[in-house]
């Protein structure tokens, strides 16, 4: 159905695609694998009409095509669901679904017709509960994903490209996503599926194409039969899946964080726990279980009642004060909440500790550069040029820069919200090592992740959350994935 | 697989020499940066036009001095406006604040205390009114456009009230203030040196201090700045106070140049200042921009005015030309941005 041959895309200074072949059949789920920076995003953008290839051919249903704009791609029947959802928050669900092809006569939108049609599409996706008139900005991430999908369906797309559709979803929502995908493929729609979760690919995928450094290294491998180690070695030249660093040999030190009766109405209630120096505490739970909200409340970024103590002293709800006293947060939405995309790697790293580089406000830039350079090297941030704008980095490297920010100054407590979201397997292992090393140096770490194996593998102690309450606390060693999943999904404590 | 390999000492006190090849930026090389090149070319073209059309008048000392004196007042305001706009805001009240400061400093009551107090008065009035803007925007959560629009109207009204809509002359005892425009060093009036000083201080503040870094951060991604522990509200407030301060300085300059304080001073200065900032390549959405760009933008604007006057052309045509230049400048920058984007 879709045949791409020898696609080359050159950017100033980078050859993002260097001869990529892709071959997608009607009715299949074709998985695209590759490390961050392997060229997956660029390839998608070529299909979506955002970028035009410098060389190579694209054939769709036997005809040469060349999507010259996003509109053009949509007309061809290509729909793209991006990793960072591209919805307009201020518009309603129906308005978003039909954005660009409204139900309109002479410029007047027929809202009731649009709402009806939107309801139909949403029901087809098994999400009739999402009201077409709701403002999208008020929806949780999973529902936004469904709206994106509905938009693709409303275009009668014949090829749907999904860039990490499961990244923002919890377990049961992923199942629902797979159900939708299977329905689509049964109707002859082809799906190009990008994910870093190998187990997902084995579950939903038919065939796999692997990219490395802008080139295709394997085409059309059978998704279920190919051994994981083989896929990973193709991607990386290394044989790893999840490699967790060994836990600390020393027992954890003094309590750095003590939370008592923390309550934020509508998000979580009466949460109490503590984190000790050198300890990694993981919060496991579904999206909407209050994980991220607890982090925000501890950080002072969300109003909450209850008591939060940092190193024995009660803290007020003030981010500025908490950062000064030694907290740091790596937020869930990297681009929206953590990065200054236009600025250099250096400026992004030092953002959280500017005063420590200054005397009376005057920046010591030589020292700043030296520190940034040292951290870029130490965390192996690529490309290793601290003056480069951070927007040119891959997700994993951007995340390393966010961690590097909190390596400066004397931190007592780090709050990590989905630190490996959208990060490939190889870079993940590096991030895990960095996080463990932070803890080994006496920092308390509070970790939130949607991936249970990640929480179990990395954390020393785990709090299981369900609907805003802590239903279980245990050492990570005493838990296994199935038990935790049972608890967070069915609410059966231990 | 990579080992855990965080460096032994993450303590910032352990400095170290700059890594080899690290980019060093100084004011001169910043001027030569590609993004300013277009502005320099435009400026050069305008100078050539001046030399060709009015060879006998353009390159004279008196003309150049008058260009610089004219540029000085708005120029000082432009420096403040650059900070506000990079910080993601907008200040429409600058012209009105300058007028209010000039009126307040030239009331008979203030003038009794002599020129020094008059200067302090102008600076305090500008900063104070800017602080009110900042408080309304940062803590009152008003949209900058609305808060400063309200300030524009109210400050003009207050200036008219204080002056009874009359032009207030600087009295004979206080002519030391006027000396700023009449005393020349190396043939150039003192007020031009003040302008230059403000530009240099502004450049340093933006490029060499934590205040400047925070300005870019707050304008570029306020949420990220907040979560990184920057007091975004306080910084926003300070930006408007800084803008007010530059209006106070501009009031001193215009009092020196015109020997008056008046509620009509600085009419539509806000538009000229914003236009200069935009032509200079600062994004209205914040997070990106330079002082040098703004000043080049301002010089282009001032030079156009001068050329139209020298050639005896209609002021209406001059406005049309300025409008076109804003559009062309922004279009060209947009193209540059696209080329640089990955």
TrEMBL record, chain A:
PROSITE patterns: ABC_TRANSPORTER_1, ABC_TRANSPORTER_2. It comes from the Bacteria. Signal peptide: none annotated. Keywords: ATP-binding, Cell membrane, Membrane, Nucleotide-binding, Repeat, Translocase, Transport. InterPro entries: AAA+_ATPase (IPR003593), ABC_carbohydrate_import_ATPase (IPR050107), ABC_transporter-like_ATP-bd (IPR003439), ABC_transporter-like_CS (IPR017871), P-loop_NTPase (IPR027417). GO terms for cellular component: plasma membrane. GO terms for molecular function: ATP binding; ATP hydrolysis activity. The keyword Transport applies. It is found in: Cell membrane. It is a peripheral membrane protein. Residues 2-238, 251-492 form the ABC transporter domain. Pfam families: ABC_tran. Transmembrane segments: none annotated. PANTHER family: CARBOHYDRATE TRANSPORT ATP-BINDING PROTEIN MG119-RELATED, GALACTOFURANOSE TRANSPORTER ATP-BINDING PROTEIN YTFR. This is Sugar ABC transporter ATP-binding protein. It comes from Nonomuraea glycinis.
From TrEMBL, chain B:
It is found in: Cell membrane. The gene is rbsC. The chain crosses the membrane at residues 34-52, 64-86, 116-136, 142-159, 185-206, 237-256, 291-310. Residues 1-10 have a biased composition (Pro residues). One of its GO terms (molecular function) is transmembrane transporter activity. Keywords: Cell membrane, Membrane, Transmembrane, Transmembrane helix. It is a multi-pass membrane protein. This is Sugar ABC transporter permease. GO terms for cellular component: plasma membrane. Pfam families: BPD_transp_2. Its main location: membrane. Coiled coil: none annotated. Residues 1-24 are annotated as: Disordered. PANTHER family: ABC TRANSPORTER PERMEASE PROTEIN YPHD-RELATED-RELATED, RIBOSE IMPORT PERMEASE PROTEIN RBSC. The keyword Transmembrane applies.
